[in-house]
Specification:
By secondary structure, the chain is mostly helical. The chain is 67% helix and 0% strand. The longest helix is centred in the C-terminal third of the chain and has 21 residues.
Amino acid sequence: MLGSFLAFYATVGRSLDRKLYEAMYLRTSLINRCHYCTQHHIVGSKRAGLTLEQMRALKGGDYSGFSASEQVALRYSEKLTRTPDGANDADFAELKKHFSDEQIMDLHMLIGLANLTNRVTGPLALDLEFAAEEL
């Protein structure tokens, strides 16, 4: 089962900029308080070019240091994480100003994937393979 899941995991978000992918995953993991995923996406965020200040801003829900399109995606990610059935036509209209249909599907799948892994991984209290970092 894990092998199938990891194959699926590797396909989500391919049309998205890696910085946006990591910012969304990190923000979702922070909202859900998934320590394991948060720590892994701090590492991924650094590799993708997010600054410590941007990661700290994500922790506080401040998207002002991100581009207009990144802000739209991050707000959408937060909305669906907090209210899974909360998407409406206005959200999609705003997304369409910045993203292609393929990218919107990737955004949507990424939010679902992050929430799924947070809810599966978090309760397991897995040990990290490296030293944890605080934001």
